[in-house]
Design goal:
The protein is an alpha+beta fold and about 350 residues long. Among the domains are: about 140 residues, 2-Layer Sandwich (Beta Polymerase, domain 2); about 60 residues, no CATH class. It is about 55% helix and about 15% strand. It contains 10 helices and 7 strands. The protein has a 7-stranded mixed beta sheet with strand order 2-1-3-7-6-5-4. A hairpin with a 4-residue loop joins β1 and β2. It is rod-shaped and about 125 Å long. The protein starts with 18 loop residues before the first strand and ends with a helix. The N terminus is likely disordered.
Length: about 350
């Protein structure tokens, strides 16, 4: 697959690469100012303001600071620090903890990561682990539409999830293009071990991709229907749109998985057919050589009562008869497509 550029988190002026952004917003969606972690509690103490924090592989100390500032549950903080979690959505008091898997192309292969999201009435915190593009572009896009950002953290959550799901589309397209190339290799008529290996690797990556996208549909379904205190009704249609995108990706991966299985089966079948053709040709040549071998062994027994041995021209006659028999056998086997 083609290599996609890897986006690294932008480093803040305070020199901490773990803190990608920490911004305060007004109730009307206008950006107010950047914050430090210690200033978050001061903003939350101010009515009609909320906070958006973005982290990249934070340390345990950083997460403990967030726990103190937002009052996050210790189990959610533990999961966010350890990573390697299954995709899920959990409720902790008046906040949500969401885990989704992300994917991007790194070095010509698909690498997977995780994003953990803490959502409260007046805050959203995203924590990225592993292969994942920065959500700074999502934040900038939301800031350009303050009337939408005025819907609060739930709209920011929609932007993050929409960005994650949409990043699966280029991967699906790359899968489809590579599958088409492999299908051409399968029908070339020659056995290539490399083709089998690529088919297997593609199948393995596709299964992992399906495991990454499938749980997101359930998470989005819950966000569309539940949590009225955290998800505003005006935002639910946006989540339905993201859910539709996730469903399309899931259907595409299911279809390609079936096509890959078929391609593997067809490749193995063609290999078997090619082997059968080789066996048939070997058997045909063996049958063709059986006639002169039988005649030669017959006369090689040297019995005394074989009168034709004493006749003039017996040797060339025997050679001619042998060649005629071989010729007839060759024509018969050729018509039967054994040669």
């Amino acid at each position: 697959m083609d290599t996609a550029p890897t986006s690294l988190p932008s480093e803040r002026a305070d020199g901490d690469p773990m803190l990608v952004n920490c911004v305060a917003y007004a109730a009307d969606g206008q950006r107010l100012h950047d914050l430090t972690i210690d200033e978050i509690s001061d903003v939350l103490a101010t009515p009609d303001q909320w906070v958006w924090v973005g982290l990249h592989e934070p340390s345990e100390d950083m997460l403990e600071k967030l726990q103190d500032e937002f009052g996050l549950h210790e189990l959610a903080i533990e999961d966010a620090h350890n990573a390697h979690q299954r995709a899920k959505i959990e409720v902790y008091g008046d906040s949500l903890f969401i885990v989704v898997h992300t994917a991007q192309t790194v070095g010509g292969r698909i690498a997977f990561g995780e994003t953990h999201v803490f959502l409260g009435k007046r805050y959203i915190v995203t924590v990225r682990h592993g292969a994942s593009l920065s959500y700074s572009t999502v934040r900038r896009g939301c800031e350009q539409e303050p009337e939408q950002l005025a819907l609060g953290p739930s709209y920011s959550l929609h932007g993050v999830l929409d960005f994650i799901v949409d990043n699966f589309f280029p991967l699906v397209r790359e899968f489809r293009e590579e599958l088409q190339e492999l299908e051409e290799d399968v029908f070339e008529g020659t056995f290539k071990r490399e083709t089998i290996r690529r088919l297997y690797d593609l199948k393995k990556e596709l299964v992992t991709l399906r495991l990454a996208i499938a749980p997101i549909q359930d998470i989005l379904n819950q966000l569309v229907r539940q949590y009225p205190s955290l998800i505003r009704d005006e935002v639910r249609p946006y989540f339905r749109d993201v859910q539709d995108h996730a469903a399309r990706i899931s259907q595409s991966t299911d279809t390609m998985s079936e096509m890959l299985s078929s391609a593997i089966s067809v490749n193995l079948a063609l290999v078997g057919v090619a082997q059968n053709e080789v066996v048939k040709r070997l058997a045909g040549w063996a049958a063709l050589l059986a006639a002169p071998t039988l005649i030669a062994s017959w006369y090689g027994m040297n019995f005394r009562d074989m009168p034709e041995l004493d006749r003039t021209g017996a040797y060339p006659t025997l050679i001619g008869v042998t060649l005629c028999i071989c010729g007839v056998l060759y024509l018969v086997l050729k018509r039967a497509k054994w040669l």
